[in-house]
Design goal:
This protein has one domain: Dihydrofolate Reductase, subunit A. The N and C termini lie far apart (about 45 Å). An eight-stranded mixed beta sheet has the order 4-3-2-5-1-6-8-7, sandwiched between helices. The protein has six helices and eight strands. By secondary structure, the chain is of the alpha/beta class. Helix content is about 35%, strand content about 25%.
Length: about 210
């Protein structure tokens, strides 16, 4: 059984666009201006080593496919060799090694993927895909590397959800120049129900 692990670089005001550059965004590469230190580098390396597959939206997939095949090193070797799944209604002939296009209902396709692919299926970037996965309760772990900066504009990670979503913080640490690594898992169902009830009571009395 696979686990969907979403991992993101994010600003304090929720922006996740172009953290490493490569997009038409005025602050492209904004994460490079703040050091995540050796401990932050190790976190990303360990994460990559433990990944069994990648799950990406089309835009992120195309950016990765244009960059990683020409690179060397452990990160590149891992990304280039492991299975890659891209959610797209328009992509028909992916050229990046070991890639599969998932078409049709996203939630259904990801549920099937979790049943057939073992280990951590890791999602990078892919804001629209992540929002869909969160709304359908398909994310098993959410990893945020939060940089101490507010960008003020840009694509944001979180969108509207159909209902309240409870999360449980399982680990946190500060690395480098004030970069926070936060790891969340879905909260137990009872905790989520209690939070929803409290929110409803608050709304009715306001």
């Amino acid at each position: 059984m696979g686990r969907i692990v979403v991992t993101e670089f994010i600003s304090l005001d929720g922006v996740m666009e172009a953290p490493g550059g490569g997009e038409q965004f005025k602050y492209g590469g904004w994460t490079f201006k703040i050091s995540r230190g050796e401990e932050g580098d190790k976190f990303k390396l360990d994460e990559t080593r433990s990944s069994k597959a990648l799950l990406l939206g089309r835009v992120t997939y195309e950016g990765f496919a244009a960059a990683w095949p020409s690179r060397d090193g452990e990160f590149a070797d891992k990304f280039n060799s492991m299975p890659k799944y891209v959610v797209s209604s328009t992509l028909t002939n992916p050229t990046w090694n070991n890639s599969t296009v998932l078409k049709g209902d996203v939630a259904d396709q990801v549920k099937k993927l979790k049943q057939t692919q073992d280990g951590d299926i890791v999602v990078h970037g892919s804001a629209r895909l992540v929002q869909t996965l969160l709304d359908h309760d398909l994310v098993d772990e959410l990893r945020l590397m939060v940089f101490p900066v507010m960008l003020g504009s840009g694509k944001r990670l979180f969108g509207e959800t159909s209902q309240l979503k409870g999360l449980r913080l399982v680990d946190s640490k500060v690395v480098g120049d004030g970069v926070m690594i936060l790891r969340y898992e879905p909260a137990p169902e009872k905790a989520t129900e209690a939070a929803a009830a409290a929110s409803s009571r608050s709304a009715s009395t306001s």
